[in-house]
Amino acid sequence: MHDELYPVPEATAKAALIDNDKYLAMYQQSIDDPNAFWAEHGKRIDWIKPYSKVKNTSYDYHNVSIKWFEDGTLNVAANCIDRHLETRGDQTAIIWEGDDPADDEHITFRQLHERVSRLANAFKDNGVKKGDRVTIYLPMIPEAAYAMLACARIGAVHSIVFGGFSPDSLANRIEDCRSSFIITADEGLRGGRKVPLKANTDKAIEVAARDGAVVDKVIVVKRTGGDVTMKDGRDVWYHEAVAAASPDCPPEEMSAEDPLFILYTSGSTGKPKGVMHTTGGYLVYAAMTHEYVFDYQDAEVYWCTADVGWVTGHSYIVYGPLANGATTLMFEGVPNYPSPSRFWEVVDKHKVSIFYTAPTAIRALMGAGEDYVKKTDRSSLRILGSVGEPINPEAWIWYYDVVGEKRCPIVDTWWQTETGGILITPLPGATALKPGSATRPFFGIQPQIVDAEGKELEGATEGNLVIADSWPGQMRTVYGDHERFVQTYFSTYKGKYFTGDGCRRDADGYYWITGRVDDVINVSGHRMGTAEVESALVAHPKVSEAAVVGYPHSLKGQGIYAYVTLMEGEEPSEELQKELVKWVRNEIGPIASPDLIQFAPGLPKTRSGKIMRRILRKIAEDAFENLGDTSTLADPGVVDDLIENRQNRA
Ligand code: PRX
Fold first, then answer.
1. CATH number at residue 632
2. Is residue 95 part of a domain?
3. pLDDT digits (tens, 9 = 90+) for 78-135
4. Are 331 and 264 in a shared domain?
5. Ligand 1 near 387 CB (within 6 A)
6. Which of 15, 30, 317, 579 could cross-link to 313 by cystine, CB 3.0-4.6 Å?
7. What positions does the entry give for CoA binding (predicted)?
8. For atom 21 of ligand 1, which residue has the closest CA?
9. Is 29 a member of any domain?
């Protein structure tokens, strides 16, 4: 454990928005009187009709209901664009950096206004109405941000599907929210490789149609100019649709609790859930955290390397920064293309002040060696951020020493798709850092650590992380399934929001996230349900049974380890291993590819037939000396075979 304290660097302390005294005072106020606190901070965005009610939330298991600013009305796109026109119409809103270093574009707030308005009208011209769900399946091009904001402008609800997901995964999401409209591109481009987005969309529409889900219109952005089939009457070119549309589109007046977007995320059971976020509270929380966590100051260039397909891209590439009138950088490519210097070259090229990325990228770049960093200048950098998984102290220290040259505080931000924004994090001017700790709660957040029975543990301790009360950015429901929302988050520890994460609190009150305590694994900062990978595997004709667990992986954080039992008469082979990996990639997407597959004649089960995952996890971790009690297994003999044929020999 690294308990060494890194004090706030002097230069940061001088310039920062919030120092430690101010943090402590504001935090106390936010807990003592949340209504007064959020009544005040809700004003940071523009309301059409101001709210008179602030917090109306219940975590009561029998009646979970979350509403913030409920009688206020507003429009998110107007907040992210229109209200900046007078003061910063000619300021760059979005810097787009293409996959190819020769491709980039600056888009001002005025240009953003016109492009979003045209697309909003093009959506309307193609039949999209307030409340309709629009699926966005786009690469990291400015049109992805335009599409989000165009939906918000007319009150449509977007559901972004990450471009790395397969046609089947896309189809599931289209079906679940009954989305009749899709915006996609001919192809995506990442690290010089093409991704057939339109062809995937065509396949997904076919799959969805089998279940009765009809897609009326597909708007297609021409990104690469690659060959695609356009279906008459259904498929429309983006450039033609926006050219024909009016640039004048008054923003729709939305109620604070109208849905803004749905974003699917994996859980420990079943299909991915449609996490639903609403309009007012989400925007207040995304904007406020963006400003304070990154200490964002006027005219700075801010870069979050996430993809808009994940929540980080929603809150911290598009909504938070643009609501604050920030210049936000959108990057189409990958960290190591054309070389592992790319991130730092982009930082120098665009004079980036604030840089926010994931530990998996840091570990990969660390592995490539510091020369790739050192040959760049990076003097524009002021703040570094990390998100997505626990950052190991070695990677933290490398990020701090080599990338930031001991000048830039690292904000290790803990949060989730469900939380809408950052919940536990340092504030650059207020918090002394410890490598690997997300440190302290943001305003309004009451973390608690509980034991297995739900008893709150005091002081320095370790257990399960819950949040005791609501904050404005919290998800409101699982789309179409409120019961699942209640069951997933409020039933384990009644009256509290259960995060699914384990956590330690040290003597200074700092929080250290230890990882998931449920059947969710975190691969390169992406959430994967083990149940999803298992059901993909058993869909293969040669597989009879599968159990999937996570194991420590030096680059990805966690790797995917699959135990597979074959159908009677099928022979294990290296070929079949490869075939199964390919199969899962096709079923879910490359992020779900198993790293290791072990063919197992039998799985350890209790006499009632329940798979003992604890044992499988230990063997996958190559830590089987300590398997615990195996005497309750139906057939204790299977364990020896599993150990003998284990795939991860650390
Ligand atoms: O386990 C935690 C981990 O990522 C999970 C949330 O994943 P997702 O909804 O995909 O959102 C990722 C981006 C916000 C959490 O339950 N996690 C996220 N950030 C951190 C983290 N674990 C440790 N430290 C973090 N900073």
1. 3.30.300.30
2. no
3. 999 999 999 999 999 999 999 999 999 999 999 999 999 999 999 999 999 999 999 9
4. no
5. yes
6. 317
7. 190-193, 312, 336, 524, 585
8. 389
9. yes
Whether ligand 1 lies within 6 angstroms of the CB of 417 is answered as yes
Please state the rounded mean pLDDT for residues 345-353.
98
List, as own/partner pairs, every contact residues 224-227 make where C-beta atoms lie below 8 angstroms and the sequence separation is at least 24, other chains included.
224/185, 224/186, 224/187, 224/189, 224/194, 225/186, 226/186, 226/187, 226/194, 226/196
Specify the number of domains making up the chain: 3
Kind and range of the H or E element at 544? strand 543-553
DSSP result, 546-571 = EEEEEEEETTTEEEEEEEEEEPTTPP
CA-386 nearest atom, ligand 1: 26
Q: Are residues 471 and 589 in the same domain?
A: no
> The domain spanning residue 502 has which CATH number?
3.40.50.12780
Distance CA 243, CA 445 (A): 46
**Ligand 1 pocket check for 416: Cβ under 6 Å:** yes
Known binding-site positions: 190-193, 312, 336, 388-390, 412-417, 501, 516, 524, 527, 538, 540, 543, 585
Asked whether residue 315 falls in the same domain as residue 366, the answer is no
Q: Quick check: CB of 501 below 6 Å from ligand 1?
A: yes
List pLDDT tens digits, range 45-89: 999 999 999 999 999 999 999 999 999 999 999 999 999 999 999
Radius of gyration of the chain measured on its C-alpha atoms: 24
One DSSP character per residue, 259-277 reads EEEEEEE--SSSSPEEEEE
pLDDT band of residue 608 (cuts 50, 70, 90) is confident
Q: Is 388 in the pocket of ligand 1 (CB under 6 A)?
A: yes
Are 314 and 450 contained in the same domain?
no
Q: Are residues 485 and 564 in the same domain?
A: no
Residue 88 lies in a domain: no
- Nearest ligand 1 atom to the CA of 412 is 26
Whether pTM exceeds 0.95: yes
Whether residue 315 sits in one domain with residue 172: yes
**Parent domain of 218:** 100-294+307-324
**From atom 8 of ligand 1, which residue's Cα is the shortest distance away?**
416
Q: What is the ipTM of this complex?
A: 0.99
